[in-house]
Predict the structure.
Amino acid sequence: MRTKILFLCLSCTLLALGLQTWFFQISASSLIFRLEEEASKKSLGRMQDELYSWLKGYENNLIKIYNQKDVLADLAGSGGTTLERHSRVAYLMMQSDFQPGQYVDALYLYTMDRKLVSYARIASTPRYNFPEDIFVDGAGANRVTQYVQSDDRVILVTSTFNPSRQQTILRLVLKLYTNNVRTKIGFLVCDIDPKGFSRIVEKYAYSDRQVVWLQPPEDEPILVYGRREGGTGLDFERAVEGIRTGQWSDRDIQTIRDNVYLASPQVKYRLTAYSLVPQELLEESQNVLARNMLIVALLVILVTIISVFLISRSLTTPLTAMVQNLGRIKEGETDLRLTDLKDDEIGLLGHSINQMLDRIQELIALEYDAELQLKHAEYKALQAQVNPHFLYNTLETMSGIATAQNAPMVATLCQAMAHLFRYSLDMKDPLSTVGDEIVHLKNYLYVMNVRTGNSLEVDIAIDQSVLSEKVPRLCLQPLVENSISHGLKNKRGAKKITVRAEGVGDLRLTVHDNGVGMDADEVNTRLRSTPRSVTEKNTSIGLANIHARILLLFGPGYGVTVASSQGGGSTVSVTLPRSSCEGTTP
């Protein structure tokens, strides 16, 4: 069976992996192409945003020349002697308006007739040499001349080749106008080391096999990143020529089959970012995914073998567990049950064993119920010996005889005793009201005063708003009884009991006596450890009984607390919820 399960699982796994590989080969190429194309477009877009911010910083620095009103006025007048005094304008601008991190190599200020007013260079060495006048030295001045003569108001972004550095230099040209922006009075030329721009492009190019370049319309590329030799170089040259001449067509794009061609234009500075991604990079990504799929397949096969082994072991586990449980049942542990049973022969045997154990439990329960009924019958027999109605009727008869014999104290005493018995023995409802508890307490105090010769002074102060609040039956009179029996028993002099009922927040009942006191900490400790079952084990109604009944009726947070000191009396407090939180019969 274990071999069959292993063969079935491996067959299903290999079939699923084969189908997945087949679908992957069909759809992966086009999917990867679309993903790479979308990722490259987003990357070019983010690069264009950063380049825009970079170029905007240069433009903001160049237009600061408008703050020099005297220079603009002299340019508008084109006075020869007056312009000579501005020969240091370019140097001062390089020092004050441009930061070292902007890599400005040279700055030139010209009049509209291309007369050099001022120039500044970062250095003048054989390697870092820049022309003093781009028009005299012919350093890429044709594109500048075309731009200056045109009506284009957007700053020119172009490039020029510096032969001394053997490097393409980025060039910005800004036309200067009069205040009414109608007449051109000159222009600024700013040559920039492309180091900063190269860092931006490198950040968004994910491979040196990818060619990324910036090219204005009808112009040569101003910045190229990546390897251009080989097949990609041919495509790159064709793309550059087609963009420069404006003759790039859909047919030409289709001929670039080994590369992904992308473009991201920038409207502000007319500078478009282009990208050629070799198809080889896409195939490498596909190969990486194929290798990952193979690794996943091997892992799945390994997991399948382990799973089959574990599953086959699980078939023998129920038998082992059943034998062990039968041994424990034989020793008398009839509470055990067999679990995780299936619909097979082992499961049928397990269900039969469980049914046998259930039958044993039923017999035990029947025997326990019979014992309870016997005890209940014995209790009823004892209770029948003292019929509550017999007591009520006897006490009322005694009251009537006492009245007829002109003994009002005896009559009143009999009536009080009848009410006490009637209230104490009526336990159909575990809850009563504060008002009924006070009436019962007064009957009890009357009997005790008759017994003790009116030696007790009782002060009862009840908030009228709490008379209808629900409280456990017989929760107040036993507290007063404890005060009389224990607190005031050995008290000399005046004996006083104070009963209070307040309803601020929770309902609070307090009984205070001026007796000999007690060890309150010990009593509170016993109360906190009082189990709720004390009501079933204790026949007296003392502090523990009252506290246990409150826990049963209302839960934790309520109950009885004691405050006392030796010789200073005792105060017993009962805390209960208001009538909105009634309890249930325990």
